[in-house]
Amino acid sequence: MSSPIGLPVVGMVGGGQLARMTHQAAIALGQSLRVLAVAEDESAAVVTPDVRLGKHTDLEALRAFAQECTVLTFDHEHVPGEHLRALEAEGYTVCPGSNALRHAQDKLVMRTELAAHDIAVPAFTEVHEVGEVLAFGAEHGWPVVAKAIRGGYDGRGVWLLGSPEEASVLVRELLGAGTPLMVEQHVEMRRELSAMVARSPFGQAAAWPVVETVQRDGICVEVLAPAPGLSEQLAADAQRLAIRIAEELGVVGVLAVELFETNTGVVVNELAMRPHNSGHWSIDGARTSQFEQHLRAVLDYPLGRTEPLAPAVVMGNVLGGTEPNLRIDERMHHLFARFPGAKVHWYGKAERPGRKLGHVTMLGERMNPLRAEAELAAAFLGTGRWPDGFSIH
Ligand code: ADP
């Protein structure tokens, strides 16, 4: 399988904004990403000409797509593991492979595997009945955190349980609805970090600076690169940890290791084996973006350098506002007039309150003033309103 100019063809399963931005990076490498999307109006499907329509849960659709690609990779974790294993058994190249990817698909498998490698994770246990949660809370203290083992994203599938009474009601409800469930210790953290790395089949690895991710209502709203005030020692430890995880799990492509920073070090929360929201800053803020790096890795090209292009980089997610003001192009007009350095990325998605519509990145010398500007820019792009008393001139 090759492109008109003889290049291998990368196929991405899933047509969301991650595929859209991967396609953008693919163009510079002489590629056009081939995308398997579920609908014509998906974020990537509206910008790449090379779209196949089909469901990622349909093995026939996946197989037909794989036949037209040199290598398959993913914009999300939702392809069933048995389909991935079937494709691999038939000889198709899948990056990351099913053995690695299952650690990003199943929180219980991930926690169990990392704990077996002596990597710090919150104490956890699988849940089949309410009594197990009550016993876990009695042992580790309340609150505890219940999680859907599979299928959660953006905090959907995570429940904070404050007391045995609260746990009894909710856990019974969740188990009754058939949710595969685990419970874990509530981690007292200083903040959340993300260590992003890439690994190629050849075995080369590269790490970006460790970033701070700021969450609101379970959704990442802001990323600060590098994480302000993080000691060199802890930053290097987190990078080494992420590379070790990539190696031990055999990841090919980019890997985001979401971390909790505690008073004693870092604890792993979550793994994502695809471009990740905590790496969007790298498009404008690093020598090589996570999207280009992911392509280089799955094509087994040498990886690119990862150093930041400014002392401080802030990425703000643009979330849809309720009753937004001004058309999107008017918002951009005002934003660019106020912040000529802002780099804006829209995902081509219809506006809905709380929906991730795009992101804005700013580069500067000092984190604090830059952060205030990026927050303002992201809020304005989402709502079309400046805060009270703020003048745009
Ligand atoms: P998702 O896969 O839906 O993104 P996560 O497991 O990453 O879910 O959890 C979402 C958010 O919930 C985290 O970013 C963090 O803020 C909070 N959280 C998750 N697990 C814990 C925990 N054990 N202790 C404290 N906070 C947690």
Contiguous low-pLDDT stretches (5 residues minimum) are: none
**Discrete helix count:** 12
Measured between the Cα atoms of the first and last residue, the distance is 54 Å
CATH superfamily of the largest domain, please? ATP-grasp fold, B domain
Arithmetic mean of pLDDT: 96
Report the β-strand fraction as a percent range: 15-25%
Fold and architecture overview:
By secondary structure, this protein is of the alpha+beta class. It has three domains: 10-94, Rossmann fold; 123-185, 2-Layer Sandwich (Dna Ligase, domain 1), CATH 3.30.1490.20; 191-383, 2-Layer Sandwich (D-amino Acid Aminotransferase, Chain A, domain 1), CATH 3.30.470.20. The protein has twelve helices and 17 strands. The strands form three sheets. Strands 9, 10, 11, 12, 13, 14, 15, 16 and 17 form a nine-stranded antiparallel beta sheet that branches. The chain binds adenosine-5'-diphosphate.
Sum up the structure in keywords.
Rossmann fold; alpha+beta; 393 residues; 12 helices; 3 domains; four-stranded parallel beta sheet; Dna Ligase, domain 1; binds adenosine-5'-diphosphate; 17 strands; D-amino Acid Aminotransferase, Chain A, domain 1; single chain; nine-stranded antiparallel beta sheet; globular
